[in-house]
Specification:
The chain is an alpha/beta fold. Among the domains are: 119 residues, Rossmann fold, CATH 3.40.50.720; 82 residues, 2-Layer Sandwich (Alpha-Beta Plaits), CATH 3.30.70.1450; 78 residues, NAD(P)-binding Rossmann-like Domain (Rossmann fold), CATH 3.40.50.720. It contains 14 helices and 22 strands. Strand 2, helix 2 and strand 3 form a beta-alpha-beta unit. Helix 1 runs parallel beside helix 14 and helix 6 crosses helix 9.
Length: 451
C-alpha cells in the first residue's frame, strides 16, 4: 500500500520502522529537514520537507495516490486539517492523532465530515490499558480478539501460583479450565513453548482463553488477587485525567499528586470525585504524607521516565500491591526487570500497535487475511488474528499433521460464536478466525505459518 506519514515524533518513527519493513511504499512529511534526511537514509522511504497540512506539500508527496495518510504531529488542529486536505486530494483513508480531551466528543461526532477514518489518542488509550490492569489486578496485560470473545492474557508467575514446576503437558492434565500457554518470557529470553517446557517462578506467561473462562483459570492456579480500591497517581497530565475519570466512575478512591499548581487546580475542578494534591510526587516525604503505604495501586505518570522509575521502585518498597510505570524510551527497558519494574506502559507502542493493526486490516481488503495484530514482550512476539476466508490445503486437517514453522503456535480458533482452545486433533475450517502467536514478523496470510 501507499502510505504517507505526517509528523515524525516518537509515534511516527515507531510506525515508520514497522511499515518500512512490510513492503509498503512509504512517504514521510515533516518540517524538520535533518529529521527527514536521517530517516530517508535509514529506511527505504521517500521524504518531503514542509508543513504536512499544506496542500502543495501534500501534492508533492503524491497524496492523491495514497491508500492511507497518518497525521501524527504535535498539534491536534494540524492533524485534523491535514486529514481534511488529504481526503480532498484523494487519499482513501486517514488517521489523525487527537489528544485534547476538550475535542474528544466533537471530533468523534464530526469524523466523517472531516474526512477522518480513525482517531488515535495516546493518552486515552494508555489510560484504558492501565484501567484494565487495575480492574483485573492479577493480570499484567490483556489483549482482545474476535470482538472480545477471545483473550490473550499475561500474568506473572509468583507467590503460590500452581503453574510453578509444571510442564505444559501436566498443566493440561491437571486443570479443568481450558487455556493455551503460547509464550513465556524468562528474563531477556522469550519462548514459544512446547509440551515439555517447565514453568518457573518469575516467568511471565502469555495464554489464550475464552473470555468467560479467564476468572475460573486464575482462581484454579491461585493467582486471584483481592480487588484494588485505593489508587495513587503521580503526575497530572492527560493520561492521569482520563484514568482518574474512568476509575472514579467505578467508585475507586483516587488520589492524584501534581507539582504544577494551575494543573492541579484544573484537575480538581474537572474531577470532583477525585482527591487532587498540589505537591512534588517524586519526593518520598510527600508520598508518605499522602499515604502511599495504604494504597492498593500506584501509577507513575510524570513526563520523565527516570522519575517514574524511581517512584515506582519506592512504591514497591512500600509493598503497594500493584505499581504501573509509564516508560517512553526504548533505551530503558533492558534495565527495568533488574530494578523490579515489570508492569509498564508505553503510549507510543500502544498507539503504534493500533495503527499497524488498522494497516493490516486495510491490507486484508486487498488480499491479506489479517484481522487484528498485537505485539507482546517489547515487540518481540506478534499475536495475529487471521481470517480463514479462502480455500487452503491446510484446512480440515488435524493440527498435528501440519508442518508448522518453529516459534509459531496456533493459539486459538474462533468458529461462529465458539472459542476453541486447540489441541493436536483440532482443525482449521473455512470461515474460522485463527490466532497465531509467533516470533516471526510480517505474516499476512495464514499459510505463512507452514514450512
Amino acid at each position: 500500500m501507499k502510505i504517507i506519514i505526517i509528523g515524525l515524533g516518537t509515534v511516527g518513527r515507531t510506525i515508520l520502522k514497522t511499515l518500512s519493513s512490510e513492503e509498503h511504499t512509504v512517504t514521510i512529511i515533516d518540517d524538520d529537514k535533518d529529521k527527514v534526511d536521517a530517516l530517508i537514509a535509514k529506511y527505504d522511504v521517500f521524504g518531503v520537507v514542509g508543513n504536512g497540512a499544506c496542500k502543495d506539500i501534500q501534492k508533492e508527496a503524491k497524496m492523491r495516490e495514497a491508500d492511507l495518510a497518518i497525521a501524527l504531529t504535535h498539534s491536534d488542529e494540524l492533524n485534523v486539517f491535514a486529514c481534511l486536505v488529504a481526503k480532498k486530494l484523494g487519499a482513501k483513508n486517514t488517521i489523525a492523532r487527537v489528544r485534547n480531551p476538550a475535542y474528544r466528543t466533537q471530533i468523534m461526532e464530526m469524523k466523517d465530515e472531516l474526512g477522518i477514518s480513525m482517531i488515535v489518542n495516546p493518552e486515552l488509550e494508555t489510560s484504558e490499558e492501565i484501567f484494565n490492569r487495575i480492574n483485573l489486578p492479577s493480570v499484567s496485560q490483556i489483549e482482545h480478539f474476535a470482538n472480545g470473545r477471545a483473550l490473550l492474557v499475561e500474568i506473572p508467575v509468583e507467590g503460590n501460583c500452581s503453574l510453578i514446576g509444571e510442564t505444559l503437558i501436566s498443566i493440561g492434565k491437571k486443570l479443568n479450565s481450558k487455556v493455551l500457554i503460547c509464550a513465556v518470557q524468562r528474563g531477556d529470553e522469550v519462548f514459544i513453548p512446547t509440551g515439555n517446557f517447565v514453568i518457573a517462578r518469575g516467568d511471565r506467561v502469555h495464554f489464550t482463553s475464552d473470555a468467560n473462562s479467564l476468572g475460573d483459570f486464575l482462581a484454579e492456579i491461585n493467582v486471584v488477587n483481592s480487588p484494588l480500591k485505593k489508587i495513587m497517581i503521580v503526575g497530572g497530565g492527560r493520561t492521569s485525567f482520563y484514568l482518574a475519570e474512568a476509575l472514579s466512575k467505578k467508585k475507586y478512591k483516587v488520589r492524584i499528586i501534581e507539582s504544577n499548581k494551575s494543573v492541579a487546580e484544573g484537575l480538581a475542578d474537572s474531577l470532583p470525585k477525585v482527591t487532587v494534591v498540589h505537591g512534588n510526587g517524586t519526593r518520598h516525604e510527600i508520598l508518605l504524607e499522602e499515604g502511599i503505604e495504604a494504597m492498593d495501586a500506584f501509577v507513575a505518570l510524570t513526563d520523565v521516565d527516570e522519575e517514574n522509575m524511581i517512584v515506582s521502585m519506592f512504591a514497591n518498597k512500600m509493598n503497594v500491591k500493584k505499581s504501573i510505570t509509564l516508560i517512553k524510551s526504548d533505551d530503558l527497558y533492558e534495565m527495568l526487570g533488574e530494578l523490579g519494574i515489570d508492569n509498564t506502559v508505553s503510549p507510543k507502542d500502544i498507539v503504534a500497535n493500533r495503527i499497524i493493526s488498522y494497516v493490516r486490516a486495510l491490507a486484508n481488503k486487498r488480499g491479506s487475511n489479517v484481522l487484528t495484530l498485537h505485539r507482546l514482550v517489547n515487540n518481540t512476539v506478534e499475536a495475529v488474528e487471521f481470517a480463514a476466508k479462502k480455500h487452503e490445503r491446510i484446512y480440515n486437517k488435524p493440527l498435528r499433521e501440519l508442518h508448522i514453522k518453529d516459534n509459531c503456535l496456533i493459539a486459538c480458533i474462533i468458529r461462529d460464536h465458539e472459542v476453541i482452545i486447540p489441541d493436536g486433533n483440532s482443525a482449521i475450517m473455512l470461515g474460522d478466525n485463527v490466532i497465531v502467536v509467533t516470533t516471526h514478523k510480517n505474516f499476512d496470510d495464514l499459510t505463512d505459518i507452514i514450512d
